[in-house]
Design goal:
This protein has 6 helices and 5 strands, in the order αββαααβααββ. It is of the alpha+beta class. The strands form 2 sheets. The chain has a 3-stranded antiparallel beta sheet. β4 and β5 form a beta hairpin.
Length: 166
C-alpha cells in the first residue's frame, strides 16, 4: 500500500474535537447540511460525520457498539472493492466492503472492517447504506423539481441505488 504525505494547503483528515462526543449525534440531514465551504470563503471541508446505529453491532464479548463515525468516500473507496473477488462473485457484497472502508470508528472497537459490517443486523446495514448516500450526496438524496403540468414545485427521492453506483 502506498502512502503519501499531506501536501501544503490540504486539510487534515482527523476528527473534529466538537464531533468526538458520542452523545451529540447529528441526524444525517444535519450532519451534512453545512456542505463543503467555498474556497473563496476560506472555510473547511467537513469529512467525518457521526452516527448512531438503530440497534448496534454486538461484538464477540457481547458489547453493543452504537456510536460511530463515517468519513466521506473517495473515488478509490468506490473503485477498490470492484476488484474484490467477493464483490465479483456477488455484487450485493459491494456495500459491505465499501462501508468497511469508510466507517472510521464504531464504539470502542479498535478497527472497523468489512468483517464487522457483514455481522451487523440488517436494519443497521440499511441505516448505514442510507447514511452513506446522504453524506456523499452533500446532505440529501432529493432533488427539487417542477411539475410540467401544474408548475408546482416538489421534491423527488433520488436514492435507492446500490452503494458504489451513481
Amino acid at each position: 500500500m502506498r502512502r503519501t504525505t499531506a501536501r501544503p494547503g490540504t486539510l487534515p483528515a482527523g476528527p473534529d474535537p466538537a464531533e468526538a462526543a458520542p452523545a451529540a449525534v447529528a441526524e444525517p440531514e444535519e450532519a451534512v447540511s453545512g456542505g463543503p465551504a467555498s474556497p473563496a470563503g476560506g472555510g473547511t471541508l467537513r469529512t467525518e460525520f457521526p452516527f448512531e446505529l438503530p440497534r448496534g453491532y454486538v461484538d464477540e464479548a457481547g458489547t453493543v457498539h452504537k456510536h460511530g463515525v463515517m468519513r466521506l468516500a473517495t473515488a478509490r473507496d468506490e473503485l477498490v472493492p470492484l476488484r474484490d473477488v467477493r464483490v465479483q462473485e456477488n455484487p450485493a457484497y459491494l456495500s459491505v466492503v465499501l462501508l468497511g472502508r469508510v466507517i472510521t470508528r464504531l464504539g470502542t472497537l479498535p478497527m472497523v472492517h468489512d468483517g464487522v459490517v457483514e455481522n451487523m443486523f440488517a436494519s443497521d446495514l440499511a441505516f448505514l447504506q442510507d447514511f452513506y448516500r446522504q453524506v456523499n450526496a452533500e446532505g440529501h438524496t432529493r432533488a427539487g423539481v417542477t411539475c410540467p403540468h401544474c408548475e408546482q414545485p416538489f421534491e423527488v427521492e433520488l436514492g435507492g441505488s446500490r452503494l458504489g453506483e451513481s
